[in-house]
Amino acid sequence: MPRNPTPKAAEALARLIASGPLAVDDREALQLGAGVSPSQAAALIERFGSFPETLGASAAELERLAPRPQAARIVLMHDVAARLLRAPLRARPMLSGWDAVEDHLRAALAGRARAELRILFLDGRNRLIRDEVMARGTVDHVPVYPREIVGRALELNASALVLATNHPGGLPTPSETEVEVTRQVVAAGRVLQIAVHDHYLIAGDQVASFRALGLL
Question: Does one domain contain both 70 and 117?
Fold first, then answer.
């Protein structure tokens, strides 16, 4: 919070204290959590499209609309949320909680200005070993190298993978290239007995699954 909160900020804080988090809306949550002004909170959410996508933006993008300390706090808010969502994936087999996987990936990838390829590396009991960004690309393309993915899985002694790619500003519709490259990853993994459970596409708050689409 700013040292001298505005009347609106003070009123929102009073509601938060009295009634809990559900008493404040997205703009107020951003304002209270990151210490931005009401106008900055409104501008940020308008720029990125939603509260989750604002949290997923990079520090450089946030600093165009908010001071550096406040931008850093927004990045921290995103990281805290990611840690909370990642914890259950480490504690229990992932195959018993795909909803948690989707929530984690949506939080991790929503709001990114450039396409990213993330890999969830799993152990023999389908528990999370590592969540890594394997590649970053342009607004609508990210390079995927199947040999690097499988090689990293071997380094981590992983038994299975989940791929995830975001489509900034688009729809979670797989391209022909994504379908073909995913098949190459599956084939490379099969040789080394590394399973590919799914490839998720994230577009804002929308999620599509290759397995659900019959592409795996």
Answer: no
Give the residue among 121, 81, 110 at the shortest CA–CA distance from 201.
Answer: 110
Instruction: Report the pLDDT value the prediction gives residue 120, as an integer from 0 to 100.
Output: 93
Q: At what angle do helices 146-155 and 176-191 cross, to 10 degrees?
A: 40
Residue 23 domain flag: yes
Query: Which pLDDT band, with edges at 50, 70 and 90, does 93 fall under?
Result: low
Specify burial of residue 191 (Cβ count, 10 A radius: 0-12, 13-18, 19+): exposed
pLDDT by residue (tens digit) across 29-56?
888 888 888 888 889 888 888 887 788 7
pLDDT tens by residue, 56-88: 788 888 888 889 999 899 888 887 877 776 666
Q: State the burial class of residue 213 (Cβ atoms within 10 Å of its Cβ: 0-12, 13-18, 19+).
A: middle
Q: Is residue 28 part of a domain?
A: yes
Task: Please check whether residue 90 lies inside any domain of the structure.
Answer: no
Total domains, the chain: 2
Annotate 187-210 with DSSP letters as a single string: HHHHHTT-EEEEEEEEETTEEEET
**Residues 6 or more apart from 97 whose CB is under 8 A from it?**
88, 89
Assess if residue 19 is contained within a domain.
yes
CATH code at position 75: 1.10.150
